[in-house]
Amino acid sequence: MASTAHGNGNKVQDDPEAESLKLLADKNGKKNKATFKGPIADRSCTDIPCCILFVAYIVGMVVVGIIAFKEGDPDRLLLPQDSQGNICGKDSYVDKKYLLFFDISTCATKGGDFTKFVTVPSCPTPQVCVESCPANNELGYNRKAGDMVCKEGVETVTEGNKHQLVVQGKCAPYYLASQPVLYRCIPTLANNLLVNSSFLTNLAGNNMTKAAIEAGLEGLQFLLNAQNFGMSIFEDIKAVWYWLLIGMILVLVLAFIYILITRWITGPLIWCSIIAVFALIIYGMYFCYSKYKFLKDSGTSQDFELKFTLNLDTYTQSKDTWLGIGIFLTVLLVILLLIVLVLCKRIRIAISMIKESSKAVSAIKTSLVFPIIPWLLQLALFAWFLGVSVYLVTNGIPQYKVIDVPTGGDKYNLTNGTDCEPKTFEKEYPNTSASCVMAGYKENVHLFRMQVFHFFGWLWIMNFIIALGQCALAGAFASWYFAFHKPDDIPSLPILKSFWRTIRYHTGSLAFGAAIIAIVQFIRAVLDYIDRKLKESGQDNKIVKFIMCCCKCCFWCLEKCLKFLNKNAYIIIAIKGKNFCGAAKEAFMLLLENVLRVVAVNSVTSFLLFMGKLFVVGIVAVCSFSWFDKLNKDDPDTLQFDVVPTIIMVIFAYAVAILFFDVYDMAIDTIFLCFLEDMKMNDGSAEKPYYMSDSLKEIMDLQNRPAPDGNDDGRK
Question: Membrane-spanning regions, if any (predicted)?
Fold first, then answer.
């Protein structure tokens, strides 16, 4: 239940909530002795059942984590496994770090699903842990008996039996010069694979050509490209790390200066930002179209293919890339220009609201640093979630299947795909070419339930952390708004006190609101999972696609609406100490009664803040690209991809912009809701004066009437 606050202020007959807010002005317009210093302090715990459930769920997640850490083994993901399920580079195989495929060409049967190469031995061929990858191309039985690679448990290899062991599939039929990629021996292909004037042959007797090996490596090609791409990016970052560090510091300074000067020149700065964004977009259009014309006229443009590649030069050297970016910027310019023209008349009140928010942020400077705390909590939670998920995935029981049964069958009547036990297979079925290899992990319904339980908990706690940050900021900014004599009535350490007040009294309410968002997000994740499974099974017909698309769209819209309502509910909780349902109801009714003002203020301020983000990011993008492009031209060997440092700087700038401007967004929403509550509670009389500043009263054409004795309300 919502808490009931008690105070000594004058009771407002037409609004019971006004008593709990302890009006500052008495009938003579003099300062009340019970000076109000922010949201009500006398409150009680709210939504206690939700708090208990939330804490119990966290305990359950800890239990799941303990089970995962105890039973799981992340080395199953990080290190390769042979056909028997042994982990290369661990335990008795500590000296054998690399995985060798007997016949890499058979991997083509997996359809290029590279993920299976990482998680389980996915090729239908024996795989063995080795100390080093082969350095030369040669036939299996041409090797010395002591150097041959064979399955575990094979009898001693001699010069007399090695040919028979190769024919039986117990030893590798051929070796290819390879390099380790994620601890797997991947062939380094030449134009042909001739060795001693003879083609290498696999177990089926087929010639091993470059095309055959490339077909087998199709599933690993993404890993090969990713490794090369990652190494190139690492080398680029290593070459210009000091410039990146300097740039990041300058980005922080730029964002901080932008926030500070907004306090004094809000209107001119916002209009200049809008004009600057348009100028940056126009410059981007000019650059893209110029680049397109240059590549087209010079004939050096590379053909553009509609497929993903990690080679950035394929994109930067294609005229179609620059044409596409230019068209995108043109459309963006037109859309933003139309929005500015439509909202031009409403920008004035939005600028006034941003100016008020600037005053609040300037008065509570710690609000700019506070978002780092929720961000670190989210980062720690994600690290926990990722770690537990990895341990849970590797908590399954290995499953082994029979492969390589001859086409005509064998004397043991073995069948491909049947279960087998690797430790006893060779003894039970001697002299067979079939093998017993690991095919994955058995499905465990309890393990799946733990994964689902842990995933929902991650969503719930993540949304709780977001709610905690919003409610703490809302309480601090509400303290500023309802301080009748600024800055005298602003309480000390408003952020810290608001944070403690939120944790102490409203953990249950925040958990309630976070659970609602988490449920919707969980449903969206389930829809994505079902959609993916339908596509894999080939049942994604047009009707199913349409239904899934509608469901996804509806729940996406529902999530956005609930987030907006929750945010305003948290503001009411911070101000009045109500429970979640009561706060959500009051916030909804308050917004509904002022729907035109809500549309005018929220839409315009959101757009203006977005333009501010674009301004910061645009400045960083243009400066970074110009600088690193010049650096690369002066020394072409410095960077392999000159756009990579620019992309890093843009991502960092956008993250910083979000961090700073989200504080502004919360300040605007809080002050706007306080303004609506102020309008609802008070009428500007000496008994019930407005708390809003003079600039807001001027915009809204309101004023506080002086007391009968002629004294004003003392507002500044």
Answer: 52-69, 240-261, 267-289, 322-343, 458-483, 503-527, 607-627, 647-676
Contact 553, 530 (CB under 8 A): no
How many domains are contained in the chain? Answer: 2
Is the previous residue joined to 487 through a cis bond, with omega within 30 degrees of 0? yes
- Length of the chain in residues, anyone? 716
Residue 568 has pLDDT above 90, yes or no: yes
Query: Which DSSP symbol is given to 39?
Result: S
Amino acid at 33: K
- The one-letter amino acid code at 221 reads Q
Q: pTM to 2 decimals?
A: 0.75
Structure tokens at 701: 């054409």
How far apart, in whole angstroms, are the C-alpha atoms of residue 78 and residue 75? 5
Task: Express each pLDDT in 244-285 by its tens digit.
Answer: 888 888 888 888 887 777 777 777 877 887 888 888 889 888
Whose CA is closest to 573, among 642, 516, 640, 503?
503
Question: For residues 572 and 574, what is the distance between their CA atoms, to the nearest angstrom?
Answer: 5
Tokens of 460: 């719930």
The full DSSP string for 449-488 is HHHHHHHHHHHHHHHHHHHHHHHHHHHHHHHHHT-SSTTT
Which of 137-151, 466-480, 537-551 is modeled with the greatest confidence? 466-480
- At a CB cut-off of 8 Å and minimum separation 6, what does 576 contact? 2, 5, 17, 20, 21, 39, 40, 583, 586
Q: Which residues pair with 437 in a beta bridge?
A: 401
Flag whether 238 is in a domain: no
Residue 307 C-alpha from the chain's centroid: 24
Please indicate, yes or no, if residue 406 is contained in any of the structural domains.
yes
Does residue 371 fall inside a structural domain?
A: no
Strands (E), 404-466: 435-441
| Residue 359 within any structural domain of the chain | no
Helix H or strand E segment including 284: helix 266-298
| Domain end call among 440, 465, 489 | 440
Q: What pLDDT score was predicted for residue 560? A: 93
Q: What residue numbers bound the domain in which 170 lies?
A: 86-188
Helix H, strand E, coil C: the string for 654-680 is HHHHHHHHHHHHHHHHHHHHHHHHHHH
pLDDT digits (tens, 9 = 90+) for 92-137: 888 898 988 887 776 654 444 444 444 444 567 788 899 999 888 8
513, 641, 635: which is closest to 585 by C-alpha? 513
Q: For the chain, give the percent of residues with pLDDT over 70.
A: 80
Q: Which amino acid is at 477?
A: F
- 622-626: which pairs have CB atoms within 8 A and are 24 or more residues apart? 622/280, 622/283, 624/247, 624/649, 624/650
Helix (H) or strand (E) segment spanning residue 62: helix 48-71
The per-residue pLDDT for range 307-359, each reduced to its tens digit, is: 445 455 566 677 788 888 889 999 989 998 888 887 776 777 777 778 888 88
- For residue 599, give every residue at least 6 positions away whose Cβ sits within 8 Å of its Cβ, in sequence order, or none: none
SS (H, E, C) 615-645: HHHHHHHHHHHHHHHHHHHHCCCCCCCCHHH
pLDDT of residue 64: 94
